[in-house]
Amino acid sequence: MAVPSILIRAGRVLNNGLYRATGGRLMGTMRGMPVLLLTVRGRKTGAKHTTPVVYLEDDGTYLVTGSGAGSAEEPQWFQNLRRTDQAEIEVGRRRLGVRVAVADGAQREILWQKLLVQAAFFADYQAKVSGP
Q1: Which stretch of DSSP H or E encloses residue 35?
Q2: d(Cα 83, Cα 81) in Å, to the nearest integer?
Q3: Please, what sign has the CA dihedral across residues 114, 61, 105, 52?
Q4: Which residues pair with 123 in a beta bridge?
């Protein structure tokens, strides 16, 4: 049974509020990985949307992946990232404007391996998409 989208949105608003109110002390980790708030404009509406996402910091670069927990479809927020070159992130109490670059090819594979070292559960997500 799918979760109604209104409940998903309400949960995200609550999560984001707790994250902001506590500077990330609450809602600032997921499965042992740090979480940041990503704000990106919608590709259709232009409205800003904020989504909590797990990240990996690599040489001062914030890396996120649009895994959708193993869904065959990319999350909406990742589709929005593909169509822009700018976003905003909140890491704890810091707000930063960031340049968006979607990795592909060999660069994507290198970054994916770095992510798996820190968060092996992403391999399970990949297996859901790839199948046996």
Answers
A1: strand 33-41
A2: 5
A3: positive
A4: none
What tokens appear for 48 in the block? Answer: 């800003």
Which tokens in the block code for residue 121? Answer: 């559960």
Angle at 24 between CA 66 and CA 69, to 5 degrees: 25
**For the chain, how big is the Rg over CA atoms in Å?**
15
- pLDDT per residue, tens digit, the chain (132 aa), is 667 888 888 888 999 999 999 999 999 998 888 999 999 999 999 999 999 999 988 888 898 877 554 455 777 888 899 899 999 999 999 999 999 998 888 887 887 778 777 776 666 555 445 544
What are 59's strand-pairing partners?
A: none
Which amino acid is residue 13, in one-letter code? Answer: V
Q: Do β-strands 29-30 and 61-63 pair in parallel, antiparallel, or remain unpaired? A: unpaired
